[in-house]
Queue: 2 jobs
Job 1
Amino acid sequence: MLKLSQAAMLVGCTLAANAFAMNIQPDPDNAAGYVVAKSDIVAAEAAKTSDPMYDIWAAALQTRPNTVVEAILPGLATNPDNVKRAERMFPETEWNFLTQMAAPEYTYTRLLRAIGKFPAFCGDYTDGRDADAICKESIITAFAHFAQETGGHIAIDNYWDNPNGLEEWQQALVHVREMGWAEGQPGYTTGCGQNDWQNKRWPCADGQGYFGRGAKQLSYHFNYGAFSEVMYDGDATVLLNNPALVADTWLNLASAIWFYLTPQAPKPAMLHVIDRTWTPSQREIDAGIGYGFGTTINIINGGIECGEQNRDKGQPVNRIRYWEGLAAHYQIPIEADEKNTCWQQTPYGSINLQGATDVLYTNWDGDWTYHADRPGGVSFECQLVGYQTAYSALVPGDYEKCVTNFYESHANWPQVRVVEKLPDAGNGGNGGDTGVPSNEWNKTQVYTGGEQAVYQGATYEAKWWTQGDLPDLGGPWKLIAAAPTEPQPPVNPPVEPPVEPQPPVTEPEVPVDPKPPVTEPEVPNKSTAWQAGSTKVANGAIVSNGGKCFVAKNNPGVWETPTASNWFWDEVSC
C-alpha cells in the first residue's frame, strides 16, 4: 500500500542559501518583534527559486475550478483540451477493458474529471515532444501502479475467482478503501492532536480515520490535508473533516493524478520522468537512477521495493510484470536508456546528497545561518531543504509564512511581521521627529554594518546590526575619528615692573662638562608610546606604535601590542 511523503526527514542535508540584503527594523507595534519589507521577502524567494524547474513544477500543479471539472462528461465538445486528448488516447472502451474487476466507485467519467482538474496531465508541449504519446504512456504507467496498489492479484488460471481469465494487469482498482477498514472507523491518526506544526496546518477531525482510500490509497492526515488544499483552494479542512470523499467521488482518481504530478524533492514528479523534463543529477546517476518505469517505483516506494536486496521481492516484481504486460499490449516503446526495474537503484531515502549542487528541493525551513549584521545574528530568511516541512516552495505565499513562522515550526525564531513599507529608520521607526540630528547617535535607531554615527563629538562606525549600544563602549562600534580638541587661547607671560640695572657680579669660572640637549620624542596626537610588557592603558587611550596610532578598547593587556584593528585596538589617524 502506498504511503505518500511523511514528515520524517528524507535526506540528511540542506541546501546552503545565499544571504540577501534585508532591512530589518524593530516593530513599532511590538517591542519584542521586528518588521521586514514585503519587497525583501519577494526578492529573496525569487532568487532562491530561480531555477526554471521551479516554474515547471508549479505549472504542473495548476488546477481548474471544481465547477469546471464537475461539468466534464465523456464526449462533450466543451471538455478541456487535455481531457479531449485523454479521450483520444484512452477511450472508454479501453477503460472497460482494464476495469472489469474494478469497484463501482471508479468510473470513466471520474477519470476524465481527475485529469481535467490538472491541465498538465495529457497537456501540450511546445518543444516538439509527442504530447499524445506522453499522455498514453502516463495513463498506462498509472494503471500499472493501480494494479499493484488496488488490484485483484488473481492468477489467470484461477477460474473460481477469475472466471473471465483476466491478466493481472487487467485487475486494477478493485479496492476503494484499504482492506479491513470502513467509514466510521477512526484510525491512522498517528500524530493527531499534538501541539506541532502538522496539526496547526492540517488539524485532525474528531472521529475520522485517515486510512488508505482511492486509487493510490491516500493515507495519514498530513496527506489528506495537503491534497485538500490543492482540491479546495487552500482549504485543508474539507478532506480532513470528510475523508470519505477520497473514496466516494472523483477524488478517488484525482488523488492518484495529484501524486503523479507532485515532486517529493529530491524525488522528481513521475510525469517529468516519463516526459523527460527531469534531468537526473550526478548523485542520482551514480545511484543508478535514470529514465524508465523503474524510477517511478523508486518514487512511490523505493525504500521497500528498490535495491539489490529487493530484487526478487513480490511487490516490485508484480509492478514490473504489470507494466511490461500493459506496455506490450498498448505498444509503448521502451527506449534504450530506460529500465523497467529498480533493483539496481539506491532507494531515494538512502542517497547521500550532502554537498550536491545539482539537486533541487521543494520545502522551506528556517535558515539558522548566523548573520552578524542582523538582530541576534538571525538570518530572517528561509532555506530549501530535502525533507517535509510546514511550507512548500510550490505553494504561493508559503515563503512568507516560513519567514513569519506562521505555523510555529521554528523554535526560538524571532517575532516577524511582513509589511508593505518599513517605518522611517532615520528616527528609530517611531514615525515622529526626535529632534536629534541625523548623524548624531540615537539610542532608538537601528544601525547596520558600515553605518556611522557621532557620539560625544567622536565618529563611530557600526560593525554589525545594533540598537541602543553606546558607541564609546566598543562592542558593535569602532572609533573612526576622535572628538576634536577645542583650541586654547595663548598664555601671555606676566608683565614685571622695570628694575634698576645693577653692576654685573663676576664669579670665578668653573669648567663644566658639556651635556647634549635632552630631546623628548615627539608622539603625535598626545599619544603614549607603546612599550610591550609595561604600557597599561584604559579604554579610549591613544598609543603610538611603529609610526601609527591606535585607540584602546576592551581593556588591552600589557602584551596586546597594537599592530592593526582588532578586538583590543582600532587604528586611528595620528
Note: Confidence is low (pLDDT under 50) at residues 1-18, 426-437, 505-525.
Job 2
Amino acid sequence: MFVTLDEEKCIGCNACIRVCPVHDANKAKLAADGQHSIITIDTDKCISCGACVKECKHEARSYTDDTEQFFEDLRNGKNITVMVAPAFRLTEPDADAMLAHLRKLGVKVIHDVSFGADICTYMHIKAVKEGRCGKIMSQPCPALVEYVLKHRHNLIQYLSPVHSPFGCGAVYLRKYEGVTGPIAFISPCIAKKFELEETGLAQYNVTFKRLSEYMKKNFNYDRSAKFKFDNTSSYCGKIYPRPGGLKDCLQHAVPGLDVRNCEGVSHVYPELDNYAEASEADRPAVFDILSCPNGCISGPGTNYDEKKLFSYMSKANTVGNDAFSQREKQTFKYSLSSDKQFKWFEKNLRFEDFVRTYTPKDPHSKNVTEADIRAAYNTLMKETYVEQHFDCHACGYDSCRSMAIAIARGVNIPENCHQYVVKQAEADRQKALDAQASVENQSQKIMGAVSDITVDIEKICSDTDSIGEKCVQNDAEMTSVKEMLEQLNSKCADINNAVSGIVEVNARYREMSDAITSITDQTHILSINASVEAARAGESGKSFAVVAQEIRSLASSTKDTTAAVEENDKFVSRETDRVLGTAKEIEELVAKLEAAMSKVSANVADTSETGGYIKSMAENIRNTASILNN
C-alpha cells in the first residue's frame, strides 16, 4: 500500500470514502479532540488507485514512490535501465529535457514502453486468435488487477494472461536484450509498485510528479535538449495512455473484434460486478478497463491538469494518427503475417515468455450477516424503513446499508453518519432539556433552602448583635468587679496593717503586764517582810501590820488582774492570728479571682471578636442568598 495519510490535515469530509472503490480500505476514527472523524487507511485492503489522493482538497492523502531511492542509487553508480510510460511525453512539457538529463546523470539505456505496448497488443491478438484464452479483461491497469486479486477473486480467471505494456517491455529487456541490472519505470501510476513487486521485473516506480519535482528542485537541466529512445521504433502502443487505447489497437489490427472499454472509478468498478454476473455469451472478447477516467494521462502520479484535458487528448490523437499511419506504411493489411513488426514478433518472441500468472490475496475482510447489519442499524438509531434508506451520502457511501455494513465490519463509526449525529444531537438536546428541568427543580429547592438560610442568617445576625452587646456589658461588669476586687485587696491590706498595729500594742501591753507582775511580786515580798517586822514590833507595829496586810492584798489583787490580763492577751493573740489567717486566705482568693476574671475578660474579648467574624460571614451569606434570590 503506497497511499499515505497526514492525520493532522484530515478533517473527516469523507471525500476519500466517496470516491474509493474499496470502501473497507478507509477506516474512520474520532480525532483526538473528539470534534471530527479521521479517515485512516487499511493497508491490507487499499489498492492504491489514487482516487482519494486526487480527490482530497486538504492534502491529507498523498503517496510514496521510489524517486528518492532511484536518484540515490544512481549517484552511487548503479547501472539502472529506465523505462518510460508513453503518457510522460503527453503530459510533461519538459519530458524530453528531463530524459536527456538522466543520460547525463549516468542512465545508459532508456526505453519507451510504447514498444512493450506493441508487444502487448500482438500477444493479446495471438491469445484470442489462437484460442489461448477465453473471454478476458485487460490488465494494463495495476489498480484494477490489485482490486481483483484482493476483493474479486471470482474474476481472477478472466484477467488477461498477457503482461501489461510495461511488463511486456520489461520481459523483452530481460530475456531478449540481456538486461540484468535494476530497472526503473517512470510511470503515471501509484499502484504500479504492486506489479513491480509481484513480477520482480523492475525495482523502482518513479512517478511523473515526483520525478518532475525532484528534477526541478535539484538540477538546472537544459529545457531545450532533444532526446531519443534506445529501443526500436514503436507504433500503435503510443496511444495506450488514452481511454480505450488497447481497444483501438486491437480493433485496428483485427477489425470486428468485440472489444469494449470502460474507464473511471465511478464506472469501471461497478461494471466489474456486472461483468461477473453477465453470461459468458454476453461478455466481450476483451474488456478494456482503466481505473482513471481519462486513462493514464490522468493518473494519480502525474501532474494532470483537468483544464488541459483537450490539449492532452489532442496531442494523444496526433500521436495516435501518426502511429497508425506509420504502421500502415509498413504494408499493414490486418493480418499478423503481413505486418512487419508483428512478423518480427512472431519469429523472435515466445508467447510463453509474456504470460503472467496471478495469486489471490487475502485482505482479511470480515463477512457480515443480516443480523450484523440489523445490529448496525440499531447502533445508528435507524429503526424505520425511511431511516434505513435515507441515503444522503454524507458518510461517503452510496447508501445507508453500505454504511451499516461498514459499521458491522468495524471500519466506520456512528459519528460519521449525518442522521445519527442529528438524532444524537436531538437526544443530547432532550437530555439538556431534562437536565435544565432538573436544574430548575433543584433551583426551586435551592431557593427554598436559601430562603430558610436567609431567615436563619437573620437570626444569627440578631443573636450575634445580642452576643456583642452582652459581651460589651460583661466587659463593663468585669471591669467593675475587677475594681471591687482591687478595693477588697486594699481593705485586706488595711486589715493586715490594723492587725499588725494591734499585735504591736498587745506586745507593748504584755511588756507592761510583765513589769506589773514583777512589781506585784516585789510588793508581795515587801508585804511579807513588813508583816514580819510588824510582828516583831508588837503593839507598835500593829498599824504597820495593817498596812502590810493591805499591801499584800493589793499585790494579790494585782497578781490576779495580771493573770487575767495574760489570759486576755493570749485570747487577743489567738484571735489576731485567726484574723491574719483569714486576711491571707482572702488575699489568695482575690488573687485567684483576679486571674479567673482576666481569663473571663480574655474569653469575652475572643467571644466578641468571634461574634464579629460570625456576623461578617453571616452578612456575606445573606448577600449571596439575596443574589441567588434575584
Note: The first strand starts at residue 3 and ends at 5.
